[in-house]
Amino acid sequence: MAEAAKPVRTSQTTITELMIPSYANFGGKIHGGILLSLMDKVAYACSSKHAGAYCVTVSVDRVEFLKPVEVGELVSLHASVNYVGRSSMIVGIRVEAEHVKNSTIRHTNSCYFTMVAKDDHDKPAEVPKLILETHDDVRRFIEALHMKEIKNKIKDEMNDAKSTIHVNDALEMLKTERCIIAFKEKE
Ligand SMILES: CC(C)(COP(=O)(O)OP(=O)(O)OC[C@H]1O[C@@H](n2cnc3c(N)ncnc32)[C@H](O)[C@@H]1OP(=O)(O)O)[C@@H](O)C(=O)NCCC(=O)NCCS
């Protein structure tokens, strides 16, 4: 049986790692996959601490690599449980890159991982409620709730869009796109 409730601060987790040359891509910047792996690790640690159970990653949102990370920077990933459902948790991750020589810190991106706690039979397990102790805790919980609702709506719309596509009817629409239709339309 899960503990009744836990404050956000008790599961907040930071992972810091030095970006070494073997993490670089052909352009000399850090591979997105290296950063994704670190995000997944910190989301796992943070959610498992809150749940007191083994957790799995279900979904990843808002991962964008708009500001490249350089070799030699010290990357810190700060994770916090923003929202809990019954067995799911939305973990917010703030990624910062520190230039070790001059100690300047850049915020490179923020993203959101949905994690689910599992019981010993591999079934989703109930997690403790979240105790919101600060204004920021409340703001993040509400934001996560809104984002979850928006995501569910988009998911439904995407499923509808997929099921209603008729290729022959949509060919006209593709005339303004950067593609060439290289087959004959069926009668
Ligand atoms: C995640 C998983 C446990 C869901 O199992 P399920 O049988 O669909 O269970 P449920 O329908 O009860 O969903 C459990 C929770 O996951 C949430 N969930 C399921 N699919 C989701 C999705 N696509 N996005 C966000 N949350 C999702 C549900 O809302 C529910 O949350 P709640 O308990 O807080 O209400 C199952 O899909 C799984 O084990 N996936 C593999 C995870 C994994 O191996 N990850 C490693 C990375 S590849």
Automatic annotation (TrEMBL):
PROSITE patterns with a match to the protein in the record: HOTDOG_ACOT
InterPro entries, per database record: Cytosol_ACT, HOTDOG_ACOT, HotDog_dom_sf, Thioestr_dom
Classification via Gene3D superfamilies: Hotdog Thioesterase
Record keywords: Hydrolase
Source organism, top-level taxon: Bacteria
Domain HotDog ACOT-type: 9-121
A Pfam family it matches: 4HBT
Family: Belongs to the acyl coenzyme A hydrolase family.
Protein name as catalogued: Acyl-CoA thioesterase
